[in-house]
Amino acid sequence: MALMQNAALPYWEDLYNFSDQKKKDFSGMNPSQNVSFYAPRINGCSSRKSLKVNANVKGYKKVETINGKKVNGIHVEGMPFSGQTNTDLIKDSSIEEPNHEYLLGRFMEDRFVYRQSFVIRSYEIGPDKTATMETLMNLLQETALNHVASSGVAGNGFGATREMSLRKLIWVVTRIHVQVDKYSSWGDVVEIDTWVDAAGKNGMRRDWIIRDYNTHKIITRATSTWVIMNRETRRLCKIPDEVKKEVQPFYLNRTAIATEDIDSEKIEKVTDESAGKIRTGLAPRWSDMDANQHVNNVKYIGWILESVPINVLEDYNLTSMTLEYRRECRQSNVLESLTSMETKTAENRPNNTAKEDFECTHLLRMEDDNAEIVRARSVWKFNQNRII
Question: What class of enzyme is it (predicted)?
Fold first, then answer.
């Protein structure tokens, strides 16, 4: 305890400019009294805000509520703490309360829809300063996992329910289709809605829509199909009746993408002869693995784009992508990325623009035996903003 106090003294001294007398007053205070810390003025700012702390030296104290509001780690309107030890923070009225929608989601529409907001960070944008397809896919996945965690049926698995965890079952995605109208920029806030429905007898469909937080305009739509796999045998299996009973109350008969607009066509296999470019030697890293002990499905997008020509990446927007997952990938595997391209008729294109749109077909396969990992299809439209 003495070591911790000595190590902390320089920090408090520097941050709060304690005088020698203040240090003596602080070290000799009654454990039950309140102390006010005042932050120094910064960059000429005249206002100072204070935080009152009620010191508690009587050991661990479990906190169930903050300011009369229950804390459960799912959704808190007030301060986002799931518990506190040794100190109880007393909120001062001069401290502005942040908007915790950016941190924690909430249920909408009688708990059928789960909504969460995110700020696009600097490390989530590409060379054009907008969010990448990988960023969007990661946000979709994060919202889906939080939906399960907040639903009250979550088990101890990665997005699994309690009954699934008991049976060592996990969800795996078989197909996902994403349509992007606009990519958000650094600092933009997006709002994501997600919900689930049945997909045949032994599958589940999960849909998403992404809105611009300020304009409320839908900028991305996505739909996906999921099945259940045994975590140990790595074999697909039927959805047990006990699991169906858990998830069926959340089913919502609604689609993010109109049926006629969903890319449901078969993705043809790319061969060495049809591929315009082949990228070899793609090796998964330890950081590419997820909690289910296989390569995270979002990681495949980066490898797919490795075989897309650089001029397409620079001058075109990826407006649609469909991924069909066919096999797991482990850290020991080495992959190859193949891409074939064909031009598409440009719609609503100015007459003075000679650029064509592209549709690409992709394949990720094992380098040693050519076993297929992912088939994919993407649509690229020329970025009009690059016209000088």
Answer: hydrolase
